């Protein structure tokens, strides 16, 4: 970075200490030490004075906010992989560059996806709760007690075969699942061969034939409720669905209905339509052992968050050195 004057960088949430220290060294950084989510008026004030906004997925960076930005705001360097919280078109109209933090969350998110894929059919959290909640006394092992469903030999249908979807496929293959996927375009023959993956041009047809559906596509207007009531109804009553992408990709009300009516056997959800609110009907289904719920923590590792911070720093520095930042997001 060659600029004499350090760019004024407004960071909306608390970041790992090591990241904040680096930000302080390099930039005129305004941090959020106590991690209180910023209100819209606070964000408006920030975009009127900062050169760079570093939001996270909990901030709403919509057209109304972007339109109020001062001319000094040049970069929105999001501390996130997904950018569905940012109106990219509105930013482009104002000549504001947007960047994200891809690649560094792939393995962590895929690990947690597998954890849910294992947890739901094998009743992992239900079993753990029996010993910790002590609602019922454990009478000891019995041949017919706590029976789940076998994972190996089943078919997984991955919706969205990007980086995370592919990382899920690698892990799923190691667990003996056969890999099926639906994507906007086919992955390379080499990847398909390595994963022994079957491509389904028709999402509907894939949903009807697999045992576990894993949602791994980005959230965009085109993928909103991609797993609609009609599509969920195509799934087999013995099948499971796992979502570690974004809540809005699955029609949550329709999913709840399918789970309650036994049209889908179970679900593992790390993301929800109205985060941080979680539909109480899902919580009830969790208490009945039909779903496993996690509080949007699939990518939550210290290493991952530090890597994200490094990416934000590189994007800001490259931008102020007059170059195209490596993780620029185009409209
Ligand atoms: C992201 O950055 O998009 C992830 O969902 C965070 O967990």
From TrEMBL:
The entry's keywords: Oxidoreductase
Q: Which InterPro entries match?
A: D-isomer_2-hydroxyacid_DH, D-isomer_2_OHA_DH_cat_dom, D-isomer_DH_CS, D-isomer_DH_CS1, D-isomer_DH_NAD-bd, NAD(P)-bd_dom_sf
Keyword Ligase assigned: no
Presence of keyword Cell cycle: no
What Pfam families does the entry give?
2-Hacid_dh (PF00389), 2-Hacid_dh_C (PF02826)
Q: Which SUPFAM superfamilies match?
A: Formate/glycerate dehydrogenase catalytic domain-like, NAD(P)-binding Rossmann-fold domains
Instruction: Tell me where in this chain the D-isomer specific 2-hydroxyacid dehydrogenase catalytic domain is found.
Output: 19-329
Family as reported in the entry's similarity comment? Belongs to the D-isomer specific 2-hydroxyacid dehydrogenase family.
Identification of the protein by name: Lactate dehydrogenase-like 2-hydroxyacid dehydrogenase
Species of origin: Rhizobium herbae
Please spell out the taxonomic lineage of the organism that makes this protein: Bacteria, Pseudomonadati, Pseudomonadota, Alphaproteobacteria, Hyphomicrobiales
